[in-house]
Automatic annotation (TrEMBL):
GO cellular component, one term: plasma membrane
Xref: CDD domains: ABC_MJ0796_LolCDE_FtsE
Originating species: Paractinoplanes atraurantiacus
Protein name as catalogued: Putative ABC transport system ATP-binding protein
Keyword match Hydrolase: no
Keyword Transport: yes
GO function terms (MF aspect): ATP binding; ATP hydrolysis activity; transmembrane transporter activity
Length: 248
């Protein structure tokens, strides 16, 4: 497999008030180039922690992460920041746009920061794809939630990252805007062979993916190719029943 992201025996524990919480309990996974993976599981199962450690936003307690041939634990903070900026795109539930900048400035910001100005033809193509050509001089507050998330996707795509990590990208959106955002992520994979890893609670959102990973208690308990929304809902429901049985 041409793996763009590889994680090996990843663990992450947190110590709060003398109590140890295990967020990831030894996760192995590989994500091939040009694939779209949804990460699901109950609240607290470790989804965001997996995304954050795989993306180099957080350091694991043990285990290793590779983006391409680069092993993240070998990088100091500066190199890690550069890797995130140049090779990874992020899309979050809360959009994380800069209110004082225009749509165009937001989209171009990561390129500006890295000094690698993106190819203007590529940027126009991305802007057109996300349907923002008429909105480039607007500020985020003048846009709807769905439009703001499309700006965030354009910003993530502008530097042509190898990987896009999305944490609940449709969590704050209505069904129509969510569908638009998911179609954009899908086409980044199908048309441009980018690699998307997306955390979601929504079986319909997960059905846009090629593969669904389900976490429970910091471990992968299902790894299923294209299960479809009904099968996903079933897997989550049976997991819920199991957890209720365990917790009594
Ligand atoms: N900074 C932190 N300090 C202490 N514990 C944390 C921290 N971040 C996460 N945890 C704990 O680690 C576990 C996994 O959290 P994580 O946010 O990865 O779960 P999640 O599956 O993304 O949950 P949700 O669906 O509710 O967002 C939880 O028990 C959580 O309380």
């Amino acid at each position: 497999m041409d793996a763009v992201i590889r994680i090996e025996q990843l663990t992450r524990t947190y110590a709060t008030d003398g109590q140890k919480v295990t967020a990831l309990a030894g996760v192995d996974a590989a994500f091939a180039r040009g694939t779209f993976t949804a990460v699901m599981g109950p609240s607290g199962s470790g989804k965001s922690t997996l995304l954050q450690t795989a993306a180099g936003l957080d350091r694991p307690s043990s285990g290793r992460v590779w983006i391409g041939d680069t092993e993240l634990s070998k990088l100091n903070e500066t190199k890690l920041t550069e890797l995130r900026r140049d090779r990874i795109g992020f899309v979050f539930q809360a959009f994380n746009l800069i209110g004082a900048l225009t749509v165009e400035e937001n989209i171009l910001l990561p390129g500006r920061l890295s000094g690698l100005l993106p190819d203007p033809r590529w940027v126009s193509e991305v802007v057109e794809r996300v349907g923002l050509t008429q909105r480039l001089q607007h500020r985020p507050a003048q846009l709807s939630g769905g439009q703001q998330q499309r700006v965030a996707i354009a910003r993530a795509l502008a530097v042509r990252p190898e990987v896009i990590f999305a944490d609940e990208p449709t969590g704050a959106l209505d069904t129509t805007s969510a569908g638009e955002v998911l179609s954009l992520l899908r086409s980044a994979v199908t048309d441009y062979r980018q690699t998307v890893v997306m955390v979601t609670h929504d079986p319909v959102a997960a059905s846009y993916a090629d593969r669904v990973l389900v976490l429970a208690d910091g471990r992968i308990v299902h790894d299923t190719p294209q299960p479809g929304a009904d099968r996903i809902a079933e897997m989550l429901a049976s997991l819920g029943r199991r957890l209720v049985a365990v917790e009594g």
